[in-house]
Amino acid sequence: MTTLSWNCQGIGPPWKVRFLMDVISQERPNFVFLCETICKKEKMEFLRMKLGFEGMVVVDPQGRSGGLAFLWRECDQANLLSLSQHHIDVEVSVEGMGVWRITGMYGEPERNNRRKTWDLLRNLSRDSNLPWCTIGDLNNVTSQQDKHGGELYPTWLIDGFNEALTDVGLRDMELTCHQFTC
Questions:
Q1: Is the pLDDT of residue 177 over 60?
Q2: Residue range 43-47: mean pLDDT, rounded
Q3: Which residues of 94-113 are buried (b: 16+ CB within 10 A; e: fewer)?
Q4: First and final C-alpha spacing in the chain
């Protein structure tokens, strides 16, 4: 089973749609989470059909920012649990893997609001006892080594994020495949 997550920073331009189609054709993910789509549900519905996915949940952008989409291959594979401007939480049933939960998240982009992302994680952790995977762009790092270039990342942000992960029983998994895109 493969899952793809991409902060596409606007899925509108044709070259981004082609890029996404190429990655999906190569990797054949069962689930795709897109954040910062900056696209309304109607356009995402067209994209869903073009990509060959049966199921989808969309959170429309607010103005010219945000927007989330969670897509899955087979229509009976996922059921929506909850959503907001920063997450889509679904219960998943995959043959041979049982029932579990996956949450696509887009974390608060402003550093002073990152605690909201950590609190969202904590609140979501209380909603279900199913095995849980979280994907997306949480706009946080777990160590200085996760950041490339620029100034050092503030220690209070690293510590706060790691504390939230510990509180909810999640651990950071290494990225594979397309780590840096566009």
A1: no
A2: 96
A3: beeeeeebbbbbbbbeeeee
A4: 25
CB 77 within 8 A of CB 97: no
Predicted TM-score (pTM) of this structure: 0.92
- In sequence order, what are the beta bridge partners of 60? none
Closest C-alpha to 53, from 34, 69, 30, 33 = 30
The predicted model gives 145-149 an average pLDDT of 81
Q: Which two tokens stand for residue 110?
A: 């402003």
Residue 101, φ and ψ in degrees, nearest 5: -135, 140
Assign residue 169 a region (left: φ > 0; alpha: ψ between -120 and 50; beta: otherwise). left
Q: φ and ψ at 125, to 5 degrees?
A: -65, -25
The pLDDT score that the predictor gives to residue 170 is 92
